[in-house]
Design goal:
The protein is mainly beta and 243 residues long. The chain has one domain (2-242): Lipocalin (Beta Barrel), CATH 2.40.128. It has one helix spanning 2-19, and strands at 39-56, 59-80, 83-96, 99-100, 104-118, 121-142, 146-169, 172-191, 194-202, 206-215, 220-229, 232-242. The chain is elongated and about 70 Å long.
Length: 243
């Protein structure tokens, strides 16, 4: 009976912590921004809230309003005038009520491409994947065992696929469009020699975003954007230097 109570507590507590492990990551305009052979380096950030679904032993639960702050360096390269690739490296700072997870390494990669361009409007898309991990612990009253330290280890992969237009007028651009958002990963909760593993996935796959970008000069641009799905939202932005 005590083991049942203990495992039930792990489900609730680990569900709380798992939701804090996800972050919608910065996207920028859905188009290629580098000419062939050109490079870029950027500093990006995002602050997000999200609901996730977690499954263990046939039991599915939803935990709301978990916060995450992500900071990334992005290095890009122009494969052609209409396609660029880039890598991401940085860290994510995770938190939820009663828990402050460790800042851990975040990494990823992506590509942007231009599909069509006419006058001041460019149509294109992007694909981006970011891996985020975190570990930490929480001190809680476990029924039948009293106050215990529960260790938590999280690993998730966050995938975004976006399409849309970018309208440019002089040094100012407005961009946005729909995107698909997928999450896959797992969480381990451990205490008193018992470890339980959960599967994690997104609650909503469909979303959209809108943003603005301003060219400070011929090589440097800043952008800000808002992302939203049925169960998540994020404010993101960054500065990018092309050379």
């Amino acid at each position: 009976m005590k083991n049942v109570l203990f495992l039930s507590s792990i489900v609730v507590l680990s569900g709380l912590l798992s939701s804090s492990a996800l972050a919608l990551t910065p996207l920028g305009p859905p188009r290629a921004e580098l000419e062939k052979g050109k490079r870029s380096l950027g500093f990006l950030f995002s602050s997000s809230e999200m609901d996730l679904e977690m499954t263990w032993g046939g039991l599915t639960s939803t935990m709301p309003d978990m916060e995450s702050n992500t900071y990334l360096l992005r290095a890009g390269y122009g494969l052609s005038d209409g396609c660029e690739i880039y890598s991401l490296i940085g860290f994510s700072d995770l938190s939820s009520e009663g828990f402050d997870g460790d800042s851990d390494v975040a990494w990823g990669f992506g590509t942007k491409f231009t599909l069509a361009e006419k006058d001041q409007v460019t149509w294109g898309g992007l694909f981006q994947m970011c891996s985020i991990s975190s570990d930490g612990s929480i001190y809680e009253d476990v029924p039948g065992f009293g106050m215990q330290t529960i260790d938590v280890d999280v690993q998730i992969f966050d995938i975004q696929i976006a399409f849309g237009p970018t309208y440019t007028k002089d040094a100012f651009s407005i961009y946005g469009g729909p995107f698909l958002h997928f999450v896959t990963g797992d969480l381990e909760g451990s205490a008193l020699g018992v470890t339980v593993e959960f599967d994690i996935e997104q609650k909503s796959e469909f979303g959209g975003y809108i943003g603005t970008q301003f060219e400070l000069n011929k090589s440097t641009a800043v952008f800000f954007e808002y992302q939203m799905t049925g169960d998540a939202s994020a404010i993101a932005g960054g500065i990018v230097v092309r050379f």
